[in-house]
Amino acid sequence: METASENKIIQAQGRFDFLGKITVRSQFGGYGLLANGIMFAVVSDGELYLRANNKIENLFRSRGMSNLVYAKRGLPVLLRYYWVDSTLWEDECTLSHFVTRAYQGAKAEVLSKKGPTVRLKDLPNLSASLERLLWKVGIKNAAELRREGAKRCYLKLRALKCSLGINVLLALAGAISGHHYAVLPLLMRSELIEWFEIHIHSPNITQFETA
């Protein structure tokens, strides 16, 4: 292990111990950092890179963080690990937040791969008929529904069947959050209705219709 990478790993183990014990393994020609068996960062040539997923990649990019480039069979490959420069490294508060988000995102990805595939009709509010509609727009299971989110899924369904009302949007949100549509948290329900009014322009948003 080169001295620069070894020093960075030791520093990271001390800085990120709020996640638990930080272990190390060889990865991408460098060294992966793991907490509780979840790899959330890589150290390469003495530099630290944080793992990104769909939810936080834009956050890292907006900060100006660049990708780790890995040579695979002689060809450069951009990895979803983003460079922690010296300014971010010295900003302990922001760095701790980014590290936490990287770990949480990596953990969610690992759990989604390990867990059983949950059928859509087994979620709250989703009938077999709504499941079939979701299949038609490319949403095959609960994991895909969560990745897309209620609003995006609803827009896809509306493109297929424009008669679908506010109830379907609320049903999708409840399926993702684990609530019956009638008892969605007030803030969530209000935000969804406001979004529906703005983007769908329905003259009767309170009508509840079955899918």
Task: Give a description of the structure.
With 211 residues, this protein is an alpha+beta fold. The chain contains 9 helices and 6 strands. The protein has a 6-stranded antiparallel β-sheet. Strand 2 and strand 3 form a beta hairpin. It is elongated and about 65 Å long. Residues 203-211 have low confidence and may be disordered.
Q: What's a quick, concise take on this entry?
A:
With 211 residues, this protein is α+β, with helices and mostly antiparallel strands.
Number of helices: 9
Give the DSSP E fraction (strand runs of 2 or more residues).
Answer: 15-25%
- Give the uncertain stretches in residue-range form: 203-211
End-to-end C-alpha gap = 59 Å
Which percent range fits the helix content?
A: 40-55%
Work out the radius of gyration: 22 Å
Shape: elongated
Q: Count the beta strands.
A: 6
Largest sheet: 6 strands, antiparallel
Mean pLDDT: 87
- Reading the helices and strands in chain order gives HEEEEHEEHHHHHHH
For the biggest β-sheet, the strand order reads: 1-2-3-4-6-5
Label the structural class. alpha+beta
InterPro entries: TfoX-like, TfoX-like_gammaprotbact, TfoX_C, TfoX_N
Protein name: DNA transformation protein tfoX
Pfam families: TfoX_C, TfoX_N
Fold blueprint:
Blueprint: H1 3-15, E1 22-27, E2 30-35, E3 38-44, E4 47-51, H2 57-62, E5 67-72, E6 75-83, H3 86-90, H4 92-114, H5 128-136, H6 142-148, H7 150-160, H8 166-177, H9 186-199
Antiparallel strand pairs: 1-2, 2-3, 3-4, 4-6, 5-6
